[in-house]
Amino acid sequence: MYLDRFEQAAALLKPQRVGVLRQLAEPGTCTQVAERLDQTPQWVYYHVKRLVDAGLVSRVDERRVHGIHEGVYQAKARTYWLSPQLVGRIGGPRTRDELSLGFLLDILEEVHTDVAALAETASLEAAPELPSIGLAGEIRVPPHLRKEFLAELKTTMQTLLTRYGGAEGDAFKLAVACYPNVPKEAP
Q1: Which of 7, 31, 65, 171 has its C-alpha lying 20 to 30 A from 151's C-alpha?
Q2: Helices in the chain by DSSP H: which ranges?
Q3: Distance between CA atoms of residues 76 and 54, nearest Å
Q4: Residue 169 pLDDT exceeds 90
Q5: What is the DSSP string of 114-150?
Q6: Which distant-in-sequence residues (6+ apart) come within 8 Å of 89 by Cβ?
Q7: Mean pLDDT across 94-102
Q8: Domains of the chain (ranges plus CATH)?
């Protein structure tokens, strides 16, 4: 689920609600979730209610336990994405230099938004698997060859875009990101 409303993000971005939401990957009652989280059903219900109000959780069933109607809830999605537009651009426009980090961030925001729209369309219309490809890898380029590598990468991409950039056929977007690998710290 692509979250592009501030109210949804505000409801989700609380650690206790993320914990409740994870428990509701499969349908469950507040009592069941409370037992797993070592909390009270009232505490869980409070957070479930906020998640329901934000459209992140649905009441999928109801059951009667000791004369009381108890709701069965389930998360509406398996994953939740926060739109970069929730905060929006702060400050002036980024530089449009294709070798800048700002340009890369612009591309990533566009891909993020486009993929979320595709995922929403596919789930709403029960569309077959959408034709797409994702590639990721790491290459090592010695410092003295960086400029040559980037020029060759740009030429190769321009060749592909020119060869397949006609007016006929299905339109696809292509984004290539090349950036320094920042090593992750060991736990």
Answers
A1: 171
A2: 6-12, 15-23, 30-37, 41-53, 101-125, 146-163
A3: 11
A4: no
A5: HHHHHHHHHHHHTPPPP------------GGGHHHHH
A6: none
A7: 67
A8: 2-75 (1.10.10.10), 89-163 (no CATH)
